[in-house]
């Protein structure tokens, strides 16, 4: 009888230990899965923050508002600095590395040129190309965006920009020719 009781006690301990180990392994798997989701969320939020600040800048230029454009340019510098390259895919990280310094420089120029919207727009043109490259590498932005073109800007050489709406709102001519341009490409 004593052996039966001792055997049952030992079995209970072994089962408890096995269940505890399964729970620990489950917790570890959950932690890893949560880490992967967090890394994906960081990637999305980092690229989304850059996109959001770029669109604020574009919209300020559409409204001919050099002060808001400067504020958005400064915010864009901060967003670019906050991107964690380790959370990006290899392709995205390479593109980000290629565009980051130039994009920051153009955003800084826009941020420091209140009162000179023409100069802000000149930097915006090059910045738009940099952001376009970044968004093309980010295959899953989750946001429908449009790559637009104004054929008249820059003495007929044209200028491109990214928009969150299909409706043309030209940042190069603002209110004077707000609907000048066309959609070249849909991004998502």
TrEMBL record:
What start and end residues bound the annotated signal peptide?
1-16
Q: Which part of the chain is the DUF3347 domain?
A: 50-140
Q: Which domain of life is it from?
A: Bacteria
What this protein is called in its record is DUF3347 domain-containing protein
Fetch the PROSITE patterns from UniProt. Answer: PROKAR_LIPOPROTEIN
* Keyword annotations: Signal
Keyword Signal: yes or no?
yes
